[in-house]
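haha ok so turns out i had the wrong file open the whole time. this is the CORRECT one, sorry everyone. sequence first:
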Amino acid sequence: MKTATRSYHQSVRAESTEATGRRIAEAFHARLMKQWFDEITLDQVAEDAEVTVQTVVRRFGGKQGLLESAVAIIAEQVRAQRAAPPGDLPRIVDNLIGDYERTGDAVIRMLALEQRHPALEPFLNLGRKEHRQWVSEAFADQLRSLDAPARQRTLDQLVIITDVYTWQLLRRDMKRSARETAVTLKNLIQALITQTPNQP
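then structure:
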């Protein structure tokens, strides 16, 4: 009986610890979506998560650990938002724009700080790698028929067209609507993938 009671209390404690960690991670993620990384303080995160700073440090070690947790949350959300049947251009672009409308400004802020805060570099490099992988999967049918040089060249061009900087240029610098931005990206992609496949 004592063993069962002890196991129950340990289970409850573990669940509580996990819930606390999740609440802290989500609090930091929420801050990262609207603030500059270097302006976020542990005090703010602790207050948002309704815990002490010591609890944040004990659970994550500091902002590096919090950044890792936020990136995991962002990556999961990005994968879910971008999911679309390969080759379905309207859905691919609409889902991409939906992703950037939610995360684009935060990513741009992190990119702007990359040289000043080395802690951001590995996560941004991971984002670049995953974006390229997403492009290669989304347009697998169009890329498959090309020879190796043309495939790499076309993949590079698709990565550029769908990059967050392209979204920023259209949405923030040119003040285009999300719908107008989607139309522009679709037109650029369509023009690219309908050209002569192995054209130099």
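The chain is about 80% helix and 0% strand.
again sry for the mixup
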